Amino acid sequence: MDEASPGRRERKKAATRRAIAESARRLFLSHGFHDVGIRDIASDSDVAVTTVFAHFACKEALVFENDHEFEFRLNHAVSHRSADVSLVAALKSELEKMLEHCTSSQAAPLWSMIDATEDLRVFEERMRSRHAITLADAIARSEGLPYPTIACRTVARFALDSFDLARRSPEPLKAVADVFTMIDAAWQARP
Questions:
Q1: The CATH fold of domain 6-60
Q2: What is the pTM of this model?
Q3: Which of 1, 72, 88, 158 is the most exposed place for a label (fewest CB within 10 A)?
Q4: Which residue windows are transmembrane per the record (predicted)?
């Protein structure tokens, strides 16, 4: 097999990206987000600074390495759901899976750092806003609509905000269930 084949190249790029993100997380958790620079991360990852920026647009993006996967999973849950699964049920199920991972004891230190760092909180809010736009588009397409209606955009935004509300709740899964009860009622009542 040709070592320069696209499959191998893509696997190497993904491995480099993971290694950079893992180094960054470890350094951030050990020394604090603001006390670690891109050069520190590059050195720890044994890559050039330009390589870090080839994979991550900014320092904050290193903390949210799974940003695109999160967005993809929500859009996929909507657009590839079975005919017998409602839009709201599909979103709720996917968010519950994501929430289980993000509320694990392993993820707690990372979320504590995010909650304590204004730059990361702002980045996360912008990320959720961007995801709400693409999710509203996916909802509209799944409903055969030519564009995202107010109902599509509202459901998308509330679904994404439910993640943050539930993550901070003492009973995350109950919080998601409560929010999605309201989302479902609103979706059913749409004009």
A1: Arc Repressor Mutant, subunit A (1.10.10)
A2: 0.88
A3: 1
A4: none
Domains of the chain, by residue range, sit at 6-60, 67-188
Structure token pair of residue 85: 């699964």
Q: Which CATH class is domain 67-188?
A: mainly alpha
Go through the chain and tell me how many residues it has: 191
Q: What is the mean pLDDT of residues 96-104?
A: 90
pLDDT by residue (tens digit) across 42-81? 999 999 999 999 999 999 999 999 899 999 999 999 999 9
Nearest-angstrom CA–CA distance, 119 and 127: 12
Query: Quick check: 152 pLDDT over 60?
Result: yes
